Amino acid sequence: MNDALIKDAVLRVGEVSGIEGRKIFIALDKNKNSSELLYDGDILKNISVGSYVEIRKGFLSIIGKAEGEKLVEDSFSSKDKENQYQHIDKNKRTLTVTLSGYIGINGRFIGGIKELPLIGNEAFILTESKIHTIHNLLKKDVSLKINIAKTDIEEVSISFPVDGLFNSHIAIFGNTGSGKSNTLAALYQEMIKALQSRADFKNNCRFFIFDFNGEYSNPSNPCITNDKIVYNLTTKDDSKDKVPMTFDELMDVETLSILLEATEKTQKPFLKRALRYYKTVKENIDDGGNSDFVRYFKNILKKDIKNVLQMTNKDTAFKILDYLEEILAFFIDNYERKNNLRKKIAFHETNKYFHLISDSEPYLNQFSKYPGKICETDIFIESQKISPRELTDLSPLNQFFIFLLIQLINDLFIYKVQIDHINPIINRFKAKQKDIEHTFKIEQTANLWGVKNVVVINLHDVNLDMRKTIPLLLARHIYNKHKQENNKKSLSIIIDEAHNILSRTSFRETEDWKDYRLETFEEIIKEGRKFGVFVTIASQRPNDISETIISQAHNYFIHQLINQRDLQTIGNAVSYIDKITEESIPTLPIGTCIFSGIATPMPLKLKIEELPDEQKPDSHTLQFEKVLGEII
């Protein structure tokens, strides 16, 4: 017997005894019950549930995965008629195997079924070289690759191709403490190491990370890379970083609509009118090209005050006066003056006109007949005291808020809007203005990236409203700018704890705004690939995330998930995963995940290598032993 036959005899585990579609039954040889085999000087793991098996059909190697096994009673009768007895062999093992693919003529593993085996075809344990073959994710002559994982059972090192994995959308799911953050950090840390030696890496590859928990933002922690710019944002005060934007970038109707959560049909058109009015006044004041912003602004107030005090509609007029007082409050420090702007003004209820309060009869002081008397009112006098410095020293947001009110006043004069539809955006502006000023700054030539190609936005100290608004605004901003590159550069948008921004349910926002938020990210993930934009999301609650976004991912790293709804979401959205693999997700050990997608011909159970402590994200679980100190 030659060496090849001897080796085959060692590797043989049984033969095919039944076929039901993709499910193959293999009757195991009686002498293959040990846990390990000695083969060619190496110790091989014997066949067991979860391991791979090779079925030889002529020159074709069909590869399957053992999904279960059972004992079959192998009974027979003796030939001695006088002492007839029945013998039962309890050790007859039958393995259930699901076909995964085959090894082609070129020696590469190909996922899918080409041919089914026949009854009696022999089954063999895979040699180490064939284990490497079926786990090889690299195409021929691929130089860009990363190594961050080994197979769970065989402990074969897996090389991931950069092209095929990172030029795709990636989803990483897992309960807290399952190793999800380690996987995300390891992926991009190794990718950057693999690419940074290339001459055009910094110019042509960019990475934008939304960090909701501050896990990647510690300046002393080289997690992912040392060469990064971190924006540590806060909505509490001005003590931390601010995202730089130019005046035109921040004062843009789409940007403001996002910041103020404007509705599409009423509030956004109103914002557009106010913004156009504001920019027109600032940039081109009159036909002569005079840019005296303050003089023109005072003339606007003069005109509005004269118009409102000649109105007959009391309700509308009093609303307009309220807005005018709110505008003048920016320029009056004295409390008494601020609260007595209407002390000389009265409304005649019977004849429906405003008049100046004096000792003479009201009709002799009515503003509609004697408009010159309007100049004697405090509200008019204060409007004309505004100095150039008082107006120009206001922040652009304060200036724009004033023009929001002026635009609302103009619309009310011509009954163009319903106040109940516009008031919410005015109130949201008041509520969010400080948050915007704490997190954004206007610069003449703003450069979000600086001289780096990795940006981390730390949202740990940002309030809940801005946690949804800032990622939406910045993702849209960098996506639209990147589209101008015409697919010549790559942009990777990485969203850790993605349920914070991609949630399908929210009780803090309107349905219209929620739809706009999700549609924006859905557009990026559906259309971004053609522009070189790739999205990576990581979350512990896949059920909370839009199904459209989950289903658009190309490659999945699925760590332990226990919640039944999360498991159902994975089962519905991830078409690459088989039922047996799906059922193993709740029992995955820490650091182990199911890798499935277009980069692999079949789902793989992998153990992601743990990063060194100094390179891990700041997401470790607190240990009481370390915080309690010594025993007293």
Question: How do the helices and strands line up, and which of them pair or pack?
Answer:
Layout: H1 3-11, E1 12-20, E2 23-28, E3 36-39, E4 42-45, E5 52-57, E6 60-71, E7 74-77, E8 86-89, E9 93-103, E10 109-111, E11 122-125, H2 128-134, E12 145-151, E13 157-161, H3 162-165, E14 170-173, H4 180-195, H5 201-204, E15 205-211, E16 229-234, E17 243-245, H6 247-250, H7 253-259, H8 267-283, H9 293-308, H10 314-328, H11 335-338, E18 345-348, E19 353-356, H12 378-383, H13 388-392, H14 396-413, H15 419-439, E20 440-442, E21 454-461, H16 464-482, E22 490-495, H17 499-502, H18 511-527, E23 533-539, H19 547-552, E24 555-558, H20 564-573, H21 579-583, E25 592-597, E26 604-608, H22 624-627
Parallel strand pairs: 14-23, 14-24, 15-21, 15-22, 16-21, 17-20, 22-23
Antiparallel strand pairs: 1-2, 1-11, 2-9, 3-4, 5-6, 5-11, 6-9, 7-8, 9-10, 12-13, 12-26, 18-19, 24-25, 25-26
Helix pairs in contact: 7-8, 8-14, 9-10, 9-14, 10-14, 14-15, 16-18
